């Protein structure tokens, strides 16, 4: 197995029952190995297959080496129960991880007269398989959320419409009464806010952007619109927006409402991450064919070990968070053939970047 030839890289291997990461996918597809138990130690008889040079050891170096000669104490502790179980006569399946690679291991006991004399192992690279599985799992969760959100939003919309209607009538009847008029005005604008949120949620339910809804989008205008929406919230926390827009930005092809939702989510995350200060918003060209929007805050940042969870639906570290913002953003940006990246440092702030392809002349709508 790959871990066998990894030597000290093995420190980073993390084995557990059926989940994990391993081999450079362009290099190893499977590897076989054999081992026996001698004087209470597991000793490798050999390994056959190809292994990435990163790991630095040739498979031919394995014969005669003990488990603990190759792996760190921690990794030996993780592997031992699987090996012991197999030595007792059971077939064992487990998976492990190393950085972004996933591997699956099968251990089969070889018996002579009912007695285990050898373990035969196979390691398979399942990196791609796992990536696809995670993607599928996330998109199913999102679809479910979309349906739920649409159901709830629909139920809210009807009473909301009548509340808005009656508020409007009351406002007209009371416009001469200073205080009542003022309160009703606030009620009206707050109800409008609820309606907008409900409408946003209902959009979540549409799983795909249909072809007819694509339009030419000026990101500068769209971002300025979003900033206007977020202004009050920012002001309440003494947060300012520092906006930098490169001159002559080309339009992109997309769905303005969906993109708005992306930037609202990203700016809201930035606002929620800090108590005061400046959020820097930059719109610029990126590589030949793309534009890039970055939202940089100086907030609490994200610890490194949490970065991989950000796009998982329902992942949140906030008491009142939904954990849906970033996964919805990712879905929308994927639909636009773009890319979204979050770079962050704990206590050092976060930069969320969205890259989108520019519109070509023949795509004008
Ligand atoms: N700008 C940011 N600064 C710090 N943490 C962030 C930022 N953006 C996202 N996060 C982290 O990612 C998590 C998921 O974000 P999101 O999907 O928008 O859900 P929610 O905001 O409802 O928690 C947040 O709970 C937070 O831990
Ligand atoms: Mg959020």
Automatic annotation (TrEMBL):
Give GO MF terms, alphabetically: ATP binding; phosphorelay sensor kinase activity
Q: What is its EC number?
A: 2.7.13.3
Which CDD domains does the record cross-reference, listed alphabetically?
HATPase, HisKA
Q: Indicate yes or no for the key word Membrane.
A: no
Against InterPro entries, the record matches this protein to: HATPase_C_sf, HATPase_dom, His_kinase_dom, HisK_dim/P_dom, HisK_dim/P_sf, PAS-like_dom_sf, Sig_transdc_His_kin-like_C
What's the protein called, per UniProt?
histidine kinase
Which catalytic reaction applies to this protein?
A: ATP + protein L-histidine = ADP + protein N-phospho-L-histidine
Annotated ranges, domain Histidine kinase: 151-360
Keywords tagged on the record: ATP-binding, Kinase, Nucleotide-binding, Phosphoprotein, Transferase, Two-component regulatory system
Q: So which domain of life are we looking at?
A: Bacteria
């Amino acid at each position: 197995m790959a871990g066998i030839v990894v030597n000290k890289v093995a420190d980073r291997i993390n084995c557990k029952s059926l989940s994990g990461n391993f081999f450079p996918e362009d290099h190893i597809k499977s590897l076989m190995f054999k081992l026996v138990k001698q004087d209470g130690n597991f000793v490798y008889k050999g390994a056959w297959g190809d292994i990435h040079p990163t790991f630095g050891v040739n498979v031919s170096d394995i014969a005669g080496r003990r488990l603990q000669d190759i792996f760190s104490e921690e990794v030996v502790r993780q592997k031992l129960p699987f090996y012991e179980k197999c030595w007792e006569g059971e077939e064992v399946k487990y998976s492990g991880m190393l950085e972004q690679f996933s591997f699956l291991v099968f251990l089969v006991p070889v018996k002579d007269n009912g007695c285990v004399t050898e373990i035969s192992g196979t390691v398979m690279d399942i990196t791609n398989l796992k990536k696809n599985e995670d993607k599928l799992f996330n998109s199913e969760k999102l679809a479910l959320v979309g349906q739920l959100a649409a159901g709830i939003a629909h139920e809210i919309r009807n009473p909301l419409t009548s509340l808005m209607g009656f508020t409007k009538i009351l406002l007209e009847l009371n416009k001469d009464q200073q205080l009542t008029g003022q309160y009703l005005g606030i009620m009206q604008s707050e109800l409008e806010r609820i309606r907008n949120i409900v409408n946003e949620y209902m959009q979540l339910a549409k799983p795909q952007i249909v072809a007819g809804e694509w339009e030419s989008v000026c990101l500068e205008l769209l971002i300025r619109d979003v900033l206007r929406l977020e202004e009050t919230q920012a002001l309440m926390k003494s947060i300012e927006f520092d906006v930098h827009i490169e001159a002559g930005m080309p339009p992109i092809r997309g769905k303005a409402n969906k993109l708005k939702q992306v930037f609202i989510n990203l700016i809201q995350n930035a606002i929620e991450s800090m108590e005061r200060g400046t959020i820097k918003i930059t719109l610029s060209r990126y590589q030949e064919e793309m534009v890039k929007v970055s939202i940089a805050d100086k907030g609490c940042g994200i610890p490194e070990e949490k970065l991989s969870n950000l796009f998982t639906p329902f992942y949140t570290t906030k008491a009142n968070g939904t954990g849906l913002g970033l996964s919805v953003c990712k879905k929308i940006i994927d639909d636009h053939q773009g890319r979204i990246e979050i770079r962050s440092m704990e206590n050092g702030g976060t930069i969320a970047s969205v890259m989108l392809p520019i519109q070509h002349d023949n795509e004008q709508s």
